[in-house]
Design a protein that fits this description.
Length: 258
């Protein structure tokens, strides 16, 4: 009996998820971010998207965003949203290259195969998170505009649930029932993506997978790992690949650049 040739499946939807690069004036954070983005840019296959879920510039400074702008000029489609360390005006001016404004930075990537809605969960001047009323209205309109047979990923910086990370749980996304209401009855939303926690994590919110990307700049220690320190600077940078199958099942692979 001869071996039959393996059946080649069509490439599923593959989205790289990077978070919390915290680029500042020093070399360390920029170098770790550079390694991740250079790795993604050198992949043999084209990705459907690279999403970066916030805490882009450590101090929200124009010079930091200019550095990030160079690091994130990739051959893949890239969507970058803000976190609690970011400044909306500088983010727009020096990263997105659009007129400065303090309004929430809500962005969508629309393709024939999927939609990625990246909501701004930051509150200017604060570290906890909230989806503004205008952001929820924007999300509803984007979901209304998406055909029922197109899967949607909804992303934001702040996770809307506790993750058992003492540093992050008090500054998570609050009033999360408003997000749950916005997702109710939206059968084509397949997963939620977040950052902020600086730890690769998977949980559930509103009946959906909630997938949290690791932090490129650092890793939080969990209470049962503790020696008193809450942040581990020695673990190498990492990120996630989210894969969406034809049946909309989402598989996440976490990758570490050793
Ligand atoms: Fe962060
Ligand atoms: Fe954050």
């Amino acid at each position: 009996m001869g071996q039959s040739a393996p059946t080649l499946k069509a490439m599923p939807i593959v989205i790289a998820h990077v978070s919390d690069i915290h680029v500042d004036a020093g070399a360390r954070a920029a170098e770790r971010a550079r390694r991740v983005f250079a790795h993604l840019d050198a992949l043999p296959a084209d990705l459907d998207a690279v999403v970066v879920t916030g805490d882009i510039a450590d101090h929200g400074l124009d010079a930091e965003y200019e550095t990030v702008r160079g690091l994130t000029a990739l051959r893949h489609p890239v969507l970058i949203g803000p976190g609690n360390h970011d400044d909306r005006e500088a983010f727009r001016r020096s990263l997105l290259g659009v007129p400065a404004s303090a309004e929430p930075i809500d962005q969508v990537l629309r393709t024939d195969r999927f939609v990625l809605a990246l909501c701004d969960s930051s509150i200017p001047g604060r570290h906890d998170g909230l989806l503004a009323g205008t952001t929820l209205e924007w999300l509803a309109a984007e979901l209304d505009a998406t055909p029922a047979d197109v899967p949607v990923l909804v992303a934001f910086h702040h996770p809307p649930v506790e993750l058992h990370v003492p540093l992050v749980d008090p500054i998570r996304q609050f009033e999360e029932q408003r997000l749950a209401a916005a997702l109710a009855g939206r059968a084509n939303v397949v997963a939620l993506l977040a950052g902020h926690a600086h730890t690769a994590a998977a949980t559930r919110f509103a009946g959906l997978p909630l997938l949290v990307a690791p932090g490129v700049v650092s890793t939080t220690r969990l209470p049962w790992e503790g020696d008193g320190a809450v942040v581990d600077l020695d673990q190498p940078p990492s990120f996630a690949f989210h894969v969406i199958d034809d049946d909309w099942r989402v598989t996440t692979h976490f990758r570490t650049l050793g």
